[in-house]
Sequence to fold (320 residues):
Amino acid sequence: MADAAAGDRKAFGTLTRRHLRRSIALAQRVVGNAADAEEVAQDAFLQIWANADRWRGDGTRFTTWLYRIVVNRAIDYKRRRSFAPLDAADEIADPAWSAETVIDGIRIGAAVDAAIAALPERQRAALSLCYHEEMTCAEASEILQVSVSAMESLLVRARRVVRARLQPLIRQKDGVRS
Amino acid sequence: MTLKEFKRHTEAYGADLDRWPRSARIDALALLDDSAEARDLLADAAVTDALLDAASTPLVSSRREAEVFDRIADCLAQRIVPEFVPWFLSRPPFRPAPLAGFLAGMALVGFLSYSQGLISFEKTRTPGLSGVMIVSYLGDTR
Fold:
């Protein structure tokens, strides 16, 4: 990163290759689709190049800085292109779903995706970082620039909302078991 | 650890104690041994975990990754000439070329102003030796 900060484009290329895939995946979890995620990741890396000389290696990990930029850009992007996500959430609670469809893993996955997509951006980002990217709460709180307790609150609210939205699935699943 | 604290942790971190803060794990295990309510809370959290596990994982193929990489490289290639940054906004040490140009320009303006008589300097008379008062550390004037 120090070489990239000094304007070494080759070093920046190496850095980009190393972190691009995970950055796209993280962006995709926040924005919810592949094309937007690619644009977010691209913008994030260009921003890093443009501001590379501002990075200070004083204990801040490069990945923390990178994911902070990716997540912030993804949140901004999602806000600019808000598609009334609650509509998607309504589909999850459709009582017409039968037990057969509930046990269909693909449909459950789609329902969970929709429930997560309907979360507010910061809650979705918190869930993605801590749960899917398997970061510690402290690491994720640095990326979202909040305190650890605020991060916990985001997680609590995110999990509660997802669970509430998927309650019909849980009930039906319990019904299938019994 | 109280049951309330335990609940808060299950709601934030889920049922997998490995995700919990290290400091809370041992107390949580102790509470789980003693409290059926705690075990129920953990089971509930496990259901939420299972649902979250069912979320699709974004797949980023090598081709897709390469396409984004190429787009980034293209954007950088189109910006070979760096965007103009005023020298005074540059981080120290100041960028040498704009700074040297600025100083040379200022010197030229100063020279021309002087040579055209826009600025005049009055020569100040050097005080003679008699005009200099020396005050000794004893306070005497000599």
About this structure: The helical segments of chain B are 3-13, 22-34, 36-53, 62-77, 96-115.
